[in-house]
Amino acid sequence: MNFFLETLIGGLLAGTLYSLVAIGFVLIYKASGVFNFAQGTMLLFAALTFVSLREQGLSFALALLLTVLVMIVGALLIERLVLRPLVNRSQITLFMATLGLSFIIEGLAQGLMGAQVRALDLGIEDVPLFVGEIMISQFDLIAAGVSALTVAVLALLFNKTRIGVALRAVADDTRAALSLGINLNRIWQIVWAVAGVVGLVAGLLWGARQGVQFSLSLVVLKALPVLIIGGFTSIGGAIVGGLIVGAAENLAEAYIGPLIGGGITPWFAYFLALIFLYIRPSGLFGDRIIERV
Amino acid sequence: MHATLKRRLAAIGLALGACAALVPTVQAANEQFFPLATYRVGAYASSGIPVWAGMIDYLRYINEVEGGINGVKLVWQECETEWTAEKGIECYERFKNGLNGAPVAVYQPNGAPAAYALADKAEADRIPLITLGYGRTEATDGRVFPYNFPAMLTFYSEASAFINYVAEREGGLDKLKGKKIATVYHDSAYGRETQGPLALLAQKYGFENIQIAVADPGNEQAGQWRQVRQLKPDWVFLRTWGVSTPVAIKTAARFGYPVERIVGDIWASSNEDVLPAGEAGKGYLALTPYPGGADFDIHQRIRQHILDTGKSDLKDPKSFGSVYYNSGLVNAAIAVEAIRTAQQHFGNRPLNGEEGRWGLEHLDLNDARLKEIGFLGLMQPLRLSCSDHEGGGAAKVQQWDGQRWNLITDWVQADRATLRPLIDAKAAEYAKEKGVTARDCAAQ
């Protein structure tokens, strides 16, 4: 029983990290209907910028602040140079644009800051804590706390500010929002900037665990099943989806893995997502699309 | 319109002229071509960049200080593979006929996917492949694989050297009985390669052989290390690659498994593997056929003639003497020495693939020769032959202290005699499947 509980708790905590990555996708998808393929490389770029600034001797706080500024400037540039010229184009066109963007950011990041692996020390010890006989990771616990805080800040932004109301209006009905005078370009700038900052938080937590390097951009692979399960348009869905994926893949690795040769973590989440697609194609909390024929 | 066309043609002409000016003038008559299949971009760029620096620095050293190999100058050109099979094949096809008349004597695919994909092609084209620390283990049997050279340390030997090191630590091979030894491996052809030899050695010495797979890319391993914690193995053999290594080390620490009981394999033994692990990596052990360190004789020579004169390919001087940089040196030295050996037979001139193979099959790098070329201690004695394309079969064990690797053993030799029947059986199976008639080495 202890083993089961430990696996379950560990999985749920790991799931919060998946949620954080998935939220970056949700933000942009909600505001523009675009699946941002470049979210992974934005995460890599943010973490790489932060580490490079730290290597220059900047303090943690200053490096963090400057990285946030870099991500905001990056969002403004993306909106101005990539999205605005493609406004009113089909979703697949915008998706392809983000695909190209991901390669550009990836190349730029490695070209400007180098391809070598960097260590990232956030000052959080990755040591086991014991509650009775159940082991919990201190790092996962703190990472879950940071994720919860990020979600709380986003909830405040969306629900308690004028910008948030405008964002929700665009998400609900873009044309109606435009007719009310909401500046769509400004909304896109804000959303991409927020997604960049969320990417920074995710990049720092994942980077602290595995080092800051190219493969950091691959953590988005974990976000896709989370989005399918939770829904592409709901931040709450991303959180629940992340928890489900984290718990399910850890339990599966522990109980099913040994029966079929192990190493099932990466594909089990997709297997689960496939089942959800059969049962609930829009995900647990996603908007159901109803079209008049 | 006509003027525009003229301007464009003039611009193209100028551009071509500029390109031609950038390409060094080639006098192919007395030049040997070294094709460099590199990966400077993509997921594994951080591993590759220091390797190419080591290779290029050594080739440059041979040219600048020794005047080439017996007067034959070396020329090289890079081709980006991104560590993929398809681009690896593309590069091989581009390079196999040489460069401006300078022939290819040996080819290094630099990546397991390309090595597997090129194995048959190289046989057909009669170009020897050197796959140091990767590639097909059964290619050790040169009777069946005349043009494949998994030189120095195959995955089988690596597994055996690991078991011999554990035995050394436990007080003898007889003390292995009843021990639990887990292998946490990258779930790929590379990772699964040691399952056969470890099963054989487990049977021979009576230890419990536990195999735990980590699927690519391996950036989340809680499930695997929870299993390790539950099974409580005495030792863990870590056979990961890329990001899965630092994640494994950090996750092991998170689950309270002592890092000084984990021994990484050749592809989990670099600075890039342990640096991201930070404090958790202190005490981590790793097997390597090319240990880290910049105090070997060859480093003094390269520092003096290449590094200090600003001719190094190394962008980050901190990587001088890193495990990957040293692997580049060792790879380049084997190729250079094979050509030197072949020149003794064919004359001091550029050589083709068949002649390169002859050089490899007669390569004998003993301690005296290693001392002469500055590689004593960095490289094990290596003697290849028609029937043995591996040679060596030993590794040193190094330990990470948080800043650098420290060698804690001399060469730990694999039990190659025990493993050879497994290799012969696999080679025979391949020969049967492909209709290959094994060479008679006595007639060579």
Automatic annotation (TrEMBL), chain A:
GO terms for molecular function: transmembrane transporter activity. The chain crosses the membrane at residues 7-28, 34-53, 60-78, 90-109, 139-158, 187-207, 219-248, 254-279. It is a multi-pass membrane protein. It comes from the Bacteria. It is found in: Cell inner membrane. Its main location: membrane. Keywords: Amino-acid transport, Cell membrane, Membrane, Transmembrane, Transmembrane helix, Transport. CDD domains: TM_PBP1_LivH_like. InterPro entries: ABC_transp_permease, BCAA_transport_permease. GO terms for biological process: amino acid transport. GO terms for cellular component: plasma membrane. Belongs to the binding-protein-dependent transport system permease family. LivHM subfamily. This is Branched-chain amino acid ABC transporter permease. It comes from Pseudomonas thivervalensis.
